[in-house]
Amino acid sequence: MLQGAKNKMSGPLVSGTCSGQEEVSDLKSPLSSRFREPLTHARFQELFGGAEEPELPAEPCSPWLCRLWRRRACSCSGLGAWHVLQARLPPLRWLPHYRWRAWLLGDAVAGVTVGIVHVPQGMAFALLTSVPPVFGLYTSFFPVLIYSLLGTGRHLSTGTFAVLSLMTGSVVERLVPDPLAGNLSGIEREQLEARRVGAAAAVAFGSGALMLVMFALQLGVLSTFLSEPVVKALTSGAAVHVLVSQLPSLFGLSLPRQIGCFSLFKTLAAVFMALARSSPAELTISALSLALLVPVKELNVRFRDRLPTPIPGEVVMVLLASVLCFTSSLDTRYNVQVVGLLPGGFPQPLFPTLDELPRILADSLPIALVTFAVSTSLASIYADKYSYTIDPNQELLAHGVSNLVSSLFSCFPNSATLATTSLLVDAGGNTQLAGLFSCIIVLSVLLWLGPFFYYLPKAVLACINISSMRQMFFQIQELPQLWHISRVDFTVWMVTWVAVVTLNVDLGLAVGVVVSMMTVVCRTQRVQCLALGLAEGTELYRPLRESHKLLQVPGVEPIRVAVLDFSGIPFADAAGAREVVQLTRRCQDAGICLLLAQCNALVLETLTRAGLLDRMTPEQLFVSVQDAAAHALERLKPTGPKICTVWV
């Protein structure tokens, strides 16, 4: 951690800046002065005074027991319990300050708009998960309701997400593959679908349980390991997988789903070999659907500021295709695959089958990480835009409970979604209350409107899947700018994307995280040590290699005192501690008094174990840089100051 210190300590130590005596002159009127020195606590008390704290009576117990008792008493008090409850149920914080007249209409319109889009998207993403379409509606209801009560992202829309559906579908196909016989009876098909629903719910249960464990361990900081280039490359590469996986449905082909490494190329080869058996009717439906959905998406993006609410192209396409299929009897005349009957109401709560819990947990880990990374990054973007804060650990709790509880109702893994979150913001959403209006729309479909989707062609759902990937595909447009800003991040993006597309989403995520961490390690190990010199005619110190003619190495007045500012060092490793000890020895040999300022207890303990106090006395440690500088000037008064302050 102190390698950065080597960079800055090597140069300035031999060429420090001079600090004049006037820098610590007496401050008669600090409030009227235009420039003043930073005040220490002692100096503040001297100038302004302050009420002295009353002495507390002696406590019979030991100090650490007393501190523990006070902490527990505070946490168990009524006020402490209320604060904990507010932190775990965010509506208790924002609902009392809700601006009903200004926000209610926007939340209602946004919630209804998002709910309308949830219906076709939920059914479409259920096909990606290899479960019947109605379970996509369940996943668009229960998780949204739970996140509205527990989440801290006011503008976040949760529900079915294509990337998670694709990852879950691969697990489901591996655990419950299609039988080799091919043709199944109605009862056998229902049993197969029930097993797949159970497998998908078990994955949701496992990912939710893992996120709750991460919440208990306060591991919200793990979101930093999934950097922005990794997340964007992951979602962009997964969009390619979604596109290729929907090709059989676009062409009306019944092909087994390819899983594992190189599944994308296997699917392309299978589609190419079976093109002669494609259905002209379903191919026509797919072409017409894309011809409507893609332009509508573009119109919504280009005229987002002029449209009062985005055009619901998916809903229009669903209605038109259902009416066309019903009036033309496409399902019986041309064997067009349709959604069929959607069972009304809710499924009975059922504990997922956990017979293969170890394998499910291994598959649930990357799903949990992607859920947390995508949701937290989306929430942070809109929190910064609208000036509020989110709690990453509370987000872990919200998504963990959302996945675990919804799995009891046969839902598959869910998270925040890019498309519906953008739609919610564009439609005027302000708070989590919009999620409740979205749930009302999905609930009405589950209770009353389900039969109207009987004749909806599955090819239309495949087109909805493809058109919803627009944002992820267009992330590739950011690559030239990323190359200009940071070529290291560009490399991480490209390596992750190639790994996701070539291998699969799980392995691509692992490759991206490893490469991202390796770049951080490599950059921290390649430290740069510069020799500085005084530029002629100035008081600036510049690297000697920039221009040898304009710079000269100072040496007329040797440095007497060096102050190391440790305020930016949270901890020190063994190598950094030994470096500081060696620096102390070199300063002693050169006759330089080395002072340490603002060194926290953890760093000081590490330095002490490395032998710092064998080379330095406790009088050379200071609470602030100002105190250290004042001590140095007092010590150097007879000969004049020559001080070097180093920030590490």
TrEMBL record:
STAS domain: residues covered: 563-632
Key words of the record: Membrane, Transmembrane, Transmembrane helix
Location of the protein in the cell: Membrane
Residues passing through the membrane, by range: 102-119, 125-150, 197-221, 233-252, 435-456, 490-518
Name of the protein in question: Solute carrier family 26 member 10
Organism of provenance: Cricetulus griseus (Chinese hamster)
Gene Ontology biological-process entries: transmembrane transport
Membrane topology: Multi-pass membrane protein
Any GO CC annotation of this UniProt entry: membrane
Origin: domain of life: Eukaryota
InterPro entries: SLC26A/SulP_dom, SLC26A/SulP_fam, STAS_dom, STAS_dom_sf
PROSITE patterns assigned: STAS
